[in-house]
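Long-time lurker. I teach an intro course on protein structure, and each term I like to show students one example going from raw sequence to a predicted 3D structure in token notation. This year I'd like something fresh instead of my usual example. Would anyone be willing to generate the tokens for the chain below so I can use it in lecture? Attribution to the forum is fine with me.
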Amino acid sequence: MKPNGGPLLALGMIVAVVALGYGATAMEGAADRSGLVEAPVFEVDPLWPQPLPNHWLLGSAIGVGVDSRDHVFVIHRRESFNERTELGAATDPPTGECCIPAPNILEFDPDGNLVNSWGGPADGYDWPSSNHGLSIDAKDNIWIGGNGPRDSHILKFTRNGRFLLQIGESGQAADSHARDHFGRVAKISFDNRANEAYVADGYSNKRVAVLDMDSGELKRYWGAYGNEPSDENLGPYDPSAPLAQQFRNPVHCADPSHDGLVYVCDRPNDRIQVFRTDGTYVDEVRIAPLTRGDGSTWDIAFSRDPDQRFMYVADGKNQRVYVMLRESLEIITQFGDGGRQPGQFFAVHSIATDSQGNIYTTETYEGKRVQKFVYRGMGNVAPDQGVVWPTGSD
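-- Reply from a regular --
Happy to contribute to a lecture. Here you go:
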């Protein structure tokens, strides 16, 4: 199962031109004579969420999920602070009145009020040494992975933080053919009808793994193009080299759609690969393929209409969100820019949607926040919208 070389490579390079700002526009075919395209319209909500209590501070925010009540759950890294400059109230002795790391998992209601918090080490399970990813299944259970050196397992909790299941033993070596543990899992997603969890496995392993959601039993797994995965070190990504036949680390998302496809973020290779649920390769798209280092395809979320017409792709290296037509894999518009003001991004890492069509993003590294982008319906927008600031109209 090899890539469809010529057309896809050409498309990828065109997308690279627009995504990296080298002058041309790759979205002219979708635009009308005014240069606008029809797409979902979003505006950042600069007042969401509400301020945290107790002098709490959010660290590198590494996952976001939305439950059946449109409550938003965020996971962050309590170890990601500069103690000298950020945590005066948490030092011994305290050096100031502020601040203290918030609990690992925070729950916000739709208005942005903090309604619960929990997480961290306890008896009965191995809390990750470095949190990574938070996903919510149809029963509102919370699943988390971890990308610390010893994080070779997955944890499952109720939405209130009651421990349910640990899948895999921590402290195991990377092995993309292992059946009883993982390799620093990036994210878990769900096919609730099939009762299957899809694991982006991940930061050490180089595969998609599919589990039974109740028992955690491994059912199948695969690598890039549906190939048998390999743990070979491919070296740094080179945009001019032939397309890699294996994933690079990290494999950062693996999200199943309603129509039996699975969309996989091969982040350092700047591509999304599409599979059937049995691992059969279907298609791929390269996004900003001149991007090196962290890569361009960090996470995806689907629109909430029955057909999941749109796919939203977080690009934490180029600091934007792409709006794509899911079936054709065409980028129709993008929003965001680098910066720390509302509507800008610094390492936008994770993305999720609620039942109203709103988008939520988290930012890692020094971004350390969650943002809400309010869905305003369909409209005509520029191919590159920049910062989607509120217009003041209802």
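Some talking points for your students: The chain is about 5% helix and 40% strand. The radius of gyration is 20 Å.
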